[in-house]
User: What shape does this take?
Amino acid sequence: MTPRCAGHVLQLAILNAVTVLLLATATRIDAHQWPFLANVLTRMADAIERSQESAALYLRSHGYNC
Assistant: This one.
């Protein structure tokens, strides 16, 4: 694995951890009391997930099999 590929894998792992934390926080928030905050956290997690998919496609299209 090249250093560049390893860096991308590390970034994706960090984004995975952030996504899990956001979703865990969103599910623990009382949706009746703070619906806006739960919605924002869920949308942030969805955006991170989409960016991870884009990054993985980019790496594969440029010959990196990370």
Observations:
- The chain has two helices and no strands.
